[in-house]
Amino acid sequence: MKFSKIGRIVSALVASASLGLGMTACGGGTIGYLWALGTYYNQISGFLIDDFTGNLTAIPQSPFSSGGTNPVTILVKPGGRFVYVINQGSNDTVAPTATANASQSVAGNISEYSVGGDGTLTFQQTFTSQGVHPMWATLDSTGNFLYVLDKYAPDATGNGSITAFTVAADTGRLALLPNAAIKNANGTPTAYFSVSASPIMTKVGSGGCLYTMNANSVYAYVQSSTTGQLTLATTGSQSIGNGSAVQLSSINTSGSAGFIYLTDSGQNQIYSFQAGGTACSLAQINGSQTANVATTLQPVNSIVSSNGHFLYVINQGSTGGTQSPTASSISAFTINSLGQIATLSDSSNPYSTGSGPVCLAQDPSNQYLYTSNNTDGTITGKIIDQNRGVLAPLQRGSTFPSTMKSTCLAISGSL
């Protein structure tokens, strides 16, 4: 039987609309974009996330240049219109001295991109933090302020520093936000906020708090939601664990309850805290020190599920060996109303992932979890059971080639 002319027109319009929505015959449409960094060629791999399967397909024109050397962190401004990449640079790991800055053959920078309707990234410009060797960055919940953590402050003290920026709502461009509380000799504000020596990571938490950590301590700062200024919390630092065996590797903040989770790669532990009664203080949760899931080693990062009920930790090693495809894993934990965690009861826990995972992220519809894997240059996808917290392989293959020497990844909803 032949279609009528009107029928053919309607069919053509339906097909055209499906393509415009990113839908395919075997998928459920594009629900988001995933971008993953790689240091081997200083690239950003871009992917469309399929709603029905969670599978990834390459964004047009991907991969994109990172705009610098050694990209390590990627952030998406709330609303999804702008992306920021922290490029660490190279040969800049020597602390400044009183007479000279660190030797920098290639300095670190922050690259800004605008996001197209199909997830393509268009380079805008680069910005520079005030310190040396950027380690990490975080945006506040409004997206109005961006904080870049540098391993070395420019003052030759050996401490680290945070460079704060305001973020333009219309263009996403960054403008330096000086430290109004500390003045230079000439009376002008200093251009950075000093933090502890050898910082590793920084995260904005609930209630206007920003936390930084080094290998064995966490430092809390009060962040003004109106001015973006940072003030060291009156409670000072919180030492974690005991002895030199502690090697903190990540900090993760969770929702309005103010829970904070730390991974310790030295002792294979997870520590649980909550923002205390004093502004941005850390209060230890009962039973706060929890052993990682059996057979795992070297936890390096974590994420809390969107419903706040589960904690997922990525591990680079196992008791059977390190840095092999079978060694890396994802540990799963339940979180109760007090913020306490317990190993999720499932025979498959810990779950397999690619080799050498570095970062993990959840998609906007809260169906899928993805890890970026440094050793094999892949991305691994998992289906999340939002009721039980169990992870399962994607329906049509869970491993996707990405850039070599992958570092972190970020996910945004479709525009």
From TrEMBL:
<dbReference type="InterPro" id="IPR019405">
    <property type="entry name" value="Lactonase_7-beta_prop"/>
</dbReference>
<dbReference type="InterPro" id="IPR015943">
    <property type="entry name" value="WD40/YVTN_repeat-like_dom_sf"/>
</dbReference>
<keyword id="KW-0119">Carbohydrate metabolism</keyword>
<dbReference type="InterPro" id="IPR050282">
    <property type="entry name" value="Cycloisomerase_2"/>
</dbReference>
<keyword id="KW-0313">Glucose metabolism</keyword>
<dbReference type="Pfam" id="PF10282">
    <property type="entry name" value="Lactonase"/>
</dbReference>
<dbReference type="GO" id="GO:0006006">
    <property type="term" value="P:glucose metabolic process"/>
</dbReference>
<comment type="similarity">
    <text>Belongs to the cycloisomerase 2 family.</text>
</comment>
<dbReference type="GO" id="GO:0017057">
    <property type="term" value="F:6-phosphogluconolactonase activity"/>
</dbReference>
<protein>
    <submittedName>
        <fullName>Uncharacterized protein</fullName>
    </submittedName>
</protein>
